[in-house]
Amino acid sequence: MDPIKMTKKTLPNKADRHKLFGSSEPGPRTKPVDKNGMADLQNTRKDFMFDIDAVGISNVKHPILIESTMKPHTQTTIGTFNLTSSIDKNSKGTNMSRFTEQLHQYHESGLILNLKTIKKFTKELASRLKQKDAEIEVSFPWFFERTSPTSELTGMNHANASIKVSYDSINEFDIEVSLSGTITTLCPCSKEISEYSAHNQRGQVSMTVKLDDNFDESEIDWKEALLEAAESNASARIHPILKRPDEKVVTEQAFENPRFVEDIVRLVAADLYELRYVTKFSVFCRNEESIHLHDAVASLTYDKSKD
Description:
Elements: H1 14-20, E1 52-67, E2 74-87, H2 97-108, H3 115-129, E3 133-147, E4 154-168, E5 172-186, H4 188-193, E6 200-211, H5 222-231, H6 244-256, H7 261-274, E7 278-287, E8 296-303
Antiparallel strand pairs: 1-2, 2-3, 3-4, 4-5, 5-6, 6-7, 7-8
């Protein structure tokens, strides 16, 4: 048989290909190229009718270093940042580049994400923007080791955490931290009415707490405290590795501790209420029902200052 003959295309060069698909030659340049000669629309001062509560950038992905009392004690993860400040009605806009400029400067100096650093960052950002306030919210996956109850095999779990720091020149700082962790729940109704077994499922517990001014992160890891509030009140904890003896323990533990979503939010709320450094909190639980297409949900918010 004759070998297959390959026909080679003759292609135009790259510049001609670009022209073929719509690229054009640069036109005449009449506007200044020097920064000092350029128009500065963002810093225009007029009456623009309304103050703006928050303007800035969101969904900024950046590598961060976090510390934990649980293993691994130091880890690199991905932070998703929202960075904003207010502007008054006499300002056209904010200086967007200054947000990412400061974030990268902190990265170059070794950004360890803790409350002390974020407070310093927020105050400096307000100063850099020449505004009276600024707010930073950063969310990130936090990884921690979990050991199985019988075989004592260790694997890695994770929860989603976030920090929100608001700064203004009058009231200084307002700090909220959040954590969303996964648990096992077993239905009390199913257990009560069935001759044997009961349906169970994964649940998501999301907690947001406001920290008081005396909170000391060198003494308490808020991530571990919130995780414990969620997991210790569940039917059972989630494990990355389970051998058969482990699975027996976890399954029986869930059967012995049935929980509705209503039970979860109340029990978690009780733990958060007892934390002396928490002034206000909210709890949300979502169960991915194993016998329904819908989820079961419950939530509550409590302000301890109103006691």
